[in-house]
Write a structure and sequence with these properties.
Elements: E1 2-13, E2 16-27, E3 30-35, H1 42-49, E4 56-61, E5 64-65, H2 66-69, E6 77-80, H3 92-102, H4 108-118, H5 131-143, E7 149-153, H6 161-175, E8 181-185, H7 189-192, E9 198-203, E10 206-212, H8 213-218, E11 220-226, H9 230-234, E12 239-244, E13 247-253, E14 262-264, H10 268-276
Parallel strand pairs: 3-8, 3-9, 6-7, 7-8
Antiparallel strand pairs: 1-2, 1-4, 4-5, 9-10, 11-13, 11-14, 12-13
Helix pairs in contact: 4-5
Length: 282
């Protein structure tokens, strides 16, 4: 079963085209990174998947058109946005109790494990928590839901680097399994690269790449050669070209070889910058 099917989705804000003819088939059991520059359409795409925005085209969730889910969509999808919306008058304990009582997919055992990890003060009001602690609470109650799809839009803003790492490891250990789908939109590419299966690059509202990360990395290499071999290097039509003292580097197809060159495997950041950038211009 496909977790999400997106067919020719476009979204306009007045005359501005935020999404253009987006089509994607997203299977279950995958963790997918959604990357793009600011304004590329990442958040708009997620809001369309959640039914928050009207759009042209069709979206199916768990083989059902979005409109057929009506009020039951959030039995299938949980969403962690970049701004949390928790009632600041409630304590941490009251917030947890409220969500556990109103959401049919609450997993109490997982919630207790997550609560211990987070070290949140039970009797403290949400309004008196730091921004980071509020985000921890929001992440905790969302990951405690037994849904099939988890959408994360810059989920760790305001959190220190230690908890960001802990959060992504917690996703793997407590939430993810072979039946679930997670889509993560973030600018912190290096922090999520190790957990992703697939990658989507979006630019100016268009999908420019959707691939398995390992397949993509295996098609390219970063090559570094002495400056005296620059002409041979340029003939390979490299991307992401950089000059260093006495050498030149760039991303090329894996089969490309130059004598005395150094090679390294590209990172996800390398691949992203190469896709949204251009070819070397002499």
């Amino acid at each position: 079963m496909k977790a999400i099917e997106i067919s020719r989705v476009s979204k306009y804000y007045g005359k501005f085209r935020a999404l253009e003819d987006v089509s994607l088939d997203i299977p279950g059991g995958r963790i997918i990174g959604l990357f793009g520059k600011n304004g590329a359409g990442k958040s708009t795409l997620m809001k369309c998947l959640l039914g928050f925005l009207k759009f042209q085209g069709e979206v199916k969730v768990m083989d059902k058109p979005l409109e057929d889910h009506k009020h039951n969509l959030f039995r299938e999808i949980a969403f962690i946005p970049d701004v949390n919306v928790i009632d600041e008058r409630l304590t941490v304990q009251q917030t947890i109790e409220y969500v556990s009582n109103v959401h049919p997919r609450w997993n109490n055992l997982r919630a207790e494990r997550l609560r211990k990890i987070s070290n949140l003060p039970s009797d403290k009001k949400v309004g008196r928590l730091s921004k980071g602690m509020k985000t921890k609470l929001y992440l905790m109650i969302t990951l405690a839901l037994d849904v099939n799809i988890l959408l994360l839009d810059e989920p760790t803003i305001g959190l220190d680097i230690a908890f960001r790492r802990e959060f992504f490891n917690t996703i793997l250990g407590e939430f993810f399994d072979e039946t679930k789908t997670i889509i993560i939109s973030t600018h912190q590419v290096e922090e999520v690269e190790h957990i992703l299966n697939d990658i989507i690059f979006i630019d100016e509202g268009k999908i420019i790449l959707y691939d398995a990360i390992e397949d993509l990395k295996n098609r390219y290499t970063i090559i570094t050669v002495p400056m005296e071999k620059e002409e041979e290097f340029i003939s390979l039509k490299p991307k992401l070209v950089t000059h260093k003292l006495g050498s030149i580097s760039g991303l090329v197809k894996k089969e490309a070889t130059i004598e005395d060159a150094e090679y390294r495997r590209p990172s996800l950041t390398d691949l992203f910058l190469a896709e949204v950038g251009g070819y070397y211009e002499n």
